[in-house]
Amino acid sequence: xxxxxxxxxxxIAVVGASREEGKTGREILANILADGFQGKVFPVNPKATExxxxxxxxxxxxxxxxxDLVVVVVPASIVPAVAEQCAAVGAGGIIxxxxxxxxxxxxxxxxxxxxxxxxRRAGIRVIGPNCLGxxxxxxxxxxxxxxxxxxxxxxxxxxxSGALLAAILDMASAGGIGFSSLVSIxxxxxxxxxxxxxAMGNDPDTKVIAGYxxxxxxxxxxxxxAERISGTKPILLMKSGGTEAGAAAAxxxxxxxxxxxxxxxxxxxxxxxxxCESIKEQFDFAQAFxxxxxxxxxxxxxxxxxxxxxxxxxxxxxxTGLEFAxxxxxxxxxxxxxxxxxxxxHNPIDVLGxxxxxxxxxxxxxxxxxxxxxxxxxxxxxxAMTDATATAEVVVKTAAAKPGKPVLACFLGAAKVRxxxxxxxxxxxxxxxxxxxxxxxxRAMTDYVRWRARPKRVVKLFPVNRRKVERIIERHLRRGxxxxxxxxxxEILEAYGFVTPKxxxxxxxxxxxxxxxxxxxxxxxxxxxxxxxxxxxVDGVKLGLSSAQEVQDAFDLMMYxxxxxxxxxxxxxxxxxxxxxxxxxxxxxMNRDPRFGPLMMFGMGGIMVEVLRDVSFHLAPLTxxxxxxxxxxxxxxxILRGVRGREGVDVDAIAEGLQRxxxxxxxxxxIQEMDINPYVVGPEGTAPIAVDARISVxxx
Length: 700
Fold this sequence. Notes:
The chain is of the alpha/beta class. It contains 25 helices and 30 strands. The strands form six sheets. It has a seven-stranded mixed sheet with strand order 9-8-11-10-12-13-14, with helices on both faces. Helix 7 packs parallel to helix 10. Residues 243-256 have low confidence and may be disordered.
């Protein structure tokens, strides 16, 4: 079922239309009429015969035809009856403005489900309840109580918060920002963010999709569709509501670090979604994405009439990781001919404080012809000789004459530049209140271009022993055991190509010493209990034991002290294990997010992982490129490459380990959490060793 009835209706019925001042039903009907909707409008209210000069009907059946869109503004208890009317007449779509549904509790949730059930049986889509409505400026459609229609533009906007959308509309109106459509999705009882994003993705009038979300309903489908749409249209989202509550209940290091925000960051990264931290930032980005071409690369040139702002822009460019463009010899020569001797003819191009529009025109024209420049930032401060209006006109004219590179403006000031900034807005040149905001926008555009140019996703599949893993997991689930201990966790890892240290379980001091003699010294002792997940917390790990006597003493001490610390733990013995060669300790892990599936983690390993929190996340399955990027996004990566004379380690082997782990958790959805910590990595050509591991499973 398409959403055509919402975005392009030919007729609208307002159930709950009113003549009373202050009533939402009156405001919605007034907005539909005031903004010039071209279709038929049917007020529906059994207590009135006429509203806003239109005949008013007692119910939908009395209209005599099926309205494309029904806007419902009646008490929540009456909404199911209205839904039944919609089903009976064959309405195209329903927008429920009314609140008082699942947001207020169990009874409201049941009422909401009843309404949606009625609509679904009739094949009718529902937006809301508890929403602001919908606006489509190009079609003069304002079925909302959000005020007057904004100007027509290229940005489609969706919001889970009606109040926030109202504020965004007010800000947009003040800034002259236009939209292709605005949709308040409210409780998302039926139509959700994915439906709206898909509709906007198919809309030729929408150049940019922006929005505010508190949650995502269908995780896997959202990632797939958003990734597809981002290939042709940028998606700019604000996301709130991420908490660490779920992480608090996790048993693994990965689970405790993988809070809601980590999952959403990974989702946005995979799908190419641009994350916005504020409404202002979102507007900043949306202007440029909707009005300007994408930059071919990260090289930025600045044109300014003042040294200070030029330096500030240069600092911002360097801080954000963009490149300060080096001007070609031809560009420098042309600037030297056309600008005064005191002007700076290198980047930033300083046309001097007495510059009129002709100098800006020359500098911009020459810079746009330079193949070594990917984007332009035009700065202006209102000095005595400055003509902001004429300068804005030449910026618009020159950029239009030489399209292909983004041109952003930052006219600093207020009253003295107001007319100029209006000309920029009308001419499609994004205007920013600071150089930093403009540069941040260019960085967002550059990151998006880089994402679109990423290699095609190819997930490598390694030869593995799946049957062995199936047997171990099935055995634990049959017994009702959620936690898989270290020894069997390592068996699972070995089945997927990981190397683990040799070792055996001992139940007496003499047996421990005998195993150590067979393995060779030094050895490690680890307490063995399904009830003790983090052995170091109870002093359950002893390293570097170099004789039988040390092994026996360590065994006795563990078995004496640990039962007193955790008296309810079932202690099965002590694991005697080879002491691994020295290397860099890292952690590989996974936490299965209930919405988006397996979330992979990489970071600095050892017992300090939750303190340092130097980790990165990505959704599984991983490609080689994605696994490599997980490494480079951490500070740990510099250590892995080698610093201060220290030899680096085999980073490709770590990336392969992440891919193998990704394959394991993708093929076994029963695995809910897991850690390999530490994963000891040595120089290139040596095999990393999974020193310790733990896995949690659950029925699917």
